[in-house]
Amino acid sequence: xxxxxxxxxxxxxxxxxxxxxxxxxxxxxxxxxxxxxxxxxxxxxxxxxxxxxxxxxxxxxxxxxxxxxxxxxxxxxxxxxxxxxxxxxxxxxxxxxxxxxxxxxxxxxxxxxxxxxxxxxxxxxxxxxxxxxxxxxxxxxxxxxxxxxxxxxxxxxxxxxxxxxxxxxxxxxxxxxxxxxxxxxxxxxxxxxxxxxxxxxxxxxxxxxxxxxxxxxxxxxxxxxxxxxxxxxxxxxxxxxxxxxxxxxxxxxxxxxxxxxxxxxxxxxxxxxxxxxxxxxxxxxxxxxxxxxxxxxxxxxxxxxxxxxxxxxxxxxxxxxxxxxxxxxxxxxxxxxxxxxxxxxxxxxxxxxxxxxxxxxxxxxxxxxxxxxxxxxxxxx
Length: 381
Prior knowledge:
Layout: H1 7-31, E1 41-45, E2 48-51, E3 54-57, E4 61-63, E5 67-69, H2 83-86, E6 95-99, H3 103-114, E7 118-122, H4 134-146, E8 150-152, E9 157-163, E10 166-171, E11 177-179, E12 181-184, E13 188-190, H5 197-200, E14 223-225, H6 236-251, E15 265-267, E16 273-277, H7 280-285, E17 293-300, H8 303-308, E18 314-321, E19 327-333, H9 337-349, H10 354-359
Parallel strand pairs: 4-14, 6-7, 6-12, 7-8
Antiparallel strand pairs: 1-2, 2-3, 5-13, 9-10, 10-11, 15-16, 16-19, 17-18, 18-19
C-alpha cells in the first residue's frame, strides 16, 4: 500500500504532543513546590517583578525569556510567516519559499520537500549553514538539490507582493518567483524588549542579548540570565545545563561554570548532520596551521541505501592535531548522524586521540564503523 499523508492529522498530532509535554512540565514544577504566576513580567527594580499590575518581590531573579524570530524590513514582509507559524498552517502549501540558510531554514526546507511541497530556499551567502564544516555544508546542499530543492545562493528578497494566485517574490537577481507561502528563517533575536532591563540597568550587547559572566550573573549581582536571551550557545540542552549550573552555584554553593568546548549539535535536515568540535576551517585559524592538522574524510553509500536503491551518500570527517593526535572535531552528514555524534562527543570530552579511534573495533554492518576505519589522510592546503 502506498503511504498516505494528511496535513491535518500531522498538525493535530503535533499540537497534542505539545500539550502533553507542557502538562508534564507544569506537573514537574508543581511537584517541586514551584509557584507559577502566569502573565507578562516586567522588572521594576533589582528585587521586584510586576506581573499584570501586581508587584512580586524576591531575593534572586532569573531571566530566561529565550529568543524570537527576526523579520527584516522588506516591502511586503507582512505576508511572510516564521517558524512559529509554519506548523500551524491550515493547509500544506504546494509552493513555498524559505528565506535563510541557517539550521531552521534548512530543516523546514527538508520537511516541506519531503511532504510534497515545491521548495525554493533563498540565501544571501554562497552556501547554507555558515559556521559548519565546508565539506559537510557542500555535501548537504548537494543532497538537498538532489531531492528537488532549489537553492538560490548569493540572493536576497527585494519585495513580496500578494497576488490572486499567491505571493510574488522579487529576488535581488533572476526572475520573480510565485509561491503560496514564504517562510523567513533569517535569525532570531534575544527576547529582551519591554521587560524592564533598561529601568534596572542590566547591560545588553549590540544584539540586545543580556551580558552575563561565566556563572550567568548579569551586571546586577542578584539577577541572572540563561538560554537564548544571552546569545551564548543557542541550543536547548545548553540552556538546561545553564539552568542546572545556576541552581548548583546559587543554592548548593558550588560555583559551576559551563564548559562550552566540544558541545555536540545536530541539524535535522534531510539527510541530517551531526557535529562536534572544531571544523577544518576553525582548526586552521585557531593556532593550528595546515601543517599541524590531519584530516580524514570518507564518502560512501550506507548499506541501507545500496540495498534499497536510495541514492544518498554519507560523509564522515575527522580533524586531528597532527602533533598530539588529539581529535579536534568530527562531522557527519547522513542518516543517523545525530545519534552517532552523541557517542563521539563523549569521546572528545574525554580527550580521545585518533589512535584510540583506530584501536576501537567497529560494529558491522553499520555506518558508524567508518569512524574507526578511516586511515588515509587528506592533503591539507
